Amino acid sequence: MICTTCGGDLEERVTDLPFKLGDRTIVIVKDVPVLQCPDCHSYLLRDPVMAVVERLLESANRSIELAIVRYADAA
Ligand SMILES: [Zn+2]
Predict the structure, then answer these.
(1) pTM
(2) pLDDT for 49-59, tens place per residue?
(3) Exposure check for the chain: N or C terminus, fewer CB within 10 A?
């Protein structure tokens, strides 16, 4: 796939991604498979990966400020 920002070739990578939930909760999802641009470092999540991340975020504990979850636990 092609980077929508700069036109570079996206590469398969595994990375940790932070997501903000509500006003004060940050969830870090570890080891997420992404397509990342080696030139501008923007990234894309495939639809099935996004669905897994959304499931993780829905079940995240919003009463704590920082939660760390593993992608593999929901995949
Ligand atoms: Zn790019």
Answers:
(1) 0.86
(2) 999 999 999 99
(3) N
Domain carrying residue 56: 15-32+45-73
Cα of 8 vs centre of ligand 1, distance in Å, is 5
Task: Classify residue 4: in a domain, yes or no.
Answer: no
Residue 49 lies in a domain: yes
> What element of type H or E holds 44?
strand 43-44
Tokens found for residue 62: 């919003």
Q: How far is the CA of 43 from the centre of ligand 1 (A)?
A: 8
Instruction: Work out how many domains the chain is built from and give that number.
Output: 1
Q: What is the pLDDT of residues 57-70, one digit of tens each?
A: 999 989 999 999 99
